[in-house]
Amino acid sequence: MSKLISFEDFLSYANALNATIGLVAYEKPNTKPLKKLIFDMIFWLNFVNLNLVLLGEFIFVIESVNGHHEFLEMIMALSYIGFVALGSFKTCIIMQKKSHLTTYARDMNQIFPNASIAVQRELNVQKYLKYSKFFSIMFSTMCLAMLVFFNFEAIAEWLIATELRGDVNAAQHLPYFMYAPWDWSGNHWSYYLLYGIQCWAGHTSVVAQFSSDLLLYAFIGQLIMHFEAITKDVIFYWSEFRALDFFYNFSKFLFLSYRLSERINDLFGLSLFVNFATSAVVMCFLGFQMSIGASFVNLMKLVLFLILMLTQGFLICHFGQLLTDASLSIADAAFNQNWIDSDVCCQKMLILITERAQKPVILKATTLVPVSRATMTQLLQISYKFFALLRTMYVQ
């Protein structure tokens, strides 16, 4: 490690994605008013365009119910609606809790080990940064691949038909099913306008949804780093506990880490709950479309979409499990020490620490759903039940 790692390095990918749609999750000190104004204008343009496209998709579904479109097109449109609505909802949550996120980021920055490279090397900060960046890059690449495929498949198919095959009557299609109050077919100029608007909304939806997840991964990654550093202190520096001042500072830092862990549920709990509920329904729709047959291109789109939703759900559950395991390791480390020979004051402090550490930190999607790897199994079970119900209704 040749240079000092900063707190912002953990959030760099999330902030970079948010910047493309003008979304600022938390305020940074000394932000210039002009820069803030520009970001606000970009954000509202993206947000309004996203919700206009969402409204068009809703109207398309209503028309489908009235028999104006095919049933399978309606199901695909419902998948898009779930995805876009979730992105819009997560954006609203971030904007609503922006002041709380700013306070949380400031508190996390205060306990971040940025004193020296030696301290960061001792705490393995670079390892946790690489771990966080690995999942951020992997997930961002998957999102980009799906976005490019969905946005440009329709026009690429049309260009191949007209330019390579010479089919001048090839039909034009938009990337996503959506109602428009005018006829854009027949190589009309408005087709390209609507195409650009939908591609723009697709980008906004992907960024709005998944940058929130990257933010969560970064915060949880740092909390895990702090908990594992505390565990190492308990194991390797037990002799220091004879110094009451060290013990007091250690206990103070430990309980501060616990409070920060609990606050993360207030910030992300509701969006996680809506995320799981929406993902279960969207995966049900995707599986249903795959089960009744689709063209090769549409099957590729469905598979990409499904893999992305599965990966998103798994990563959230995976980080939730890692956070719980890291917090529980403190109790195990404290219990296994030679506390019998310690001072009475240290023994009493250790009892308090052990008692608190036995209550694991649990990432929660509101108070209803504790998030762990087992949650992913439950999510798949719920999605399959919806799929089986929809499949039965369709066959009958």
UniProtKB/TrEMBL annotation:
Quaternary structure, per UniProt, is:
Interacts with Orco. Complexes exist early in the endomembrane system in olfactory sensory neurons (OSNs), coupling these complexes to the conserved ciliary trafficking pathway.
Keywords from the UniProt entry: Cell membrane, Membrane, Olfaction, Receptor, Sensory transduction, Transducer, Transmembrane, Transmembrane helix
**Could you tell me which InterPro entries the record lists for this protein?**
7tm6_olfct_rcpt (IPR004117)
Q: Which domain of life is it from?
A: Eukaryota
Whether Phosphoprotein counts among this entry's keywords is: no
Q: Where does it live in the cell? A: Cell membrane
The answer to keyword Manganese applying to this record is: no
Q: Which residues cross the membrane?
A: 42-62, 74-93, 134-152, 267-290, 302-323
Q: Which family does the record assign?
A: Belongs to the insect chemoreceptor superfamily. Heteromeric odorant receptor channel (TC 1.A.69) family.
Record-linked Pfam families: 7tm_6 (PF02949)
Origin species, per record, is: Musca domestica
Q: How does it sit in the membrane?
A: Multi-pass membrane protein
The principal localisation class reads membrane
**Under which name does UniProt file this protein?**
Odorant receptor
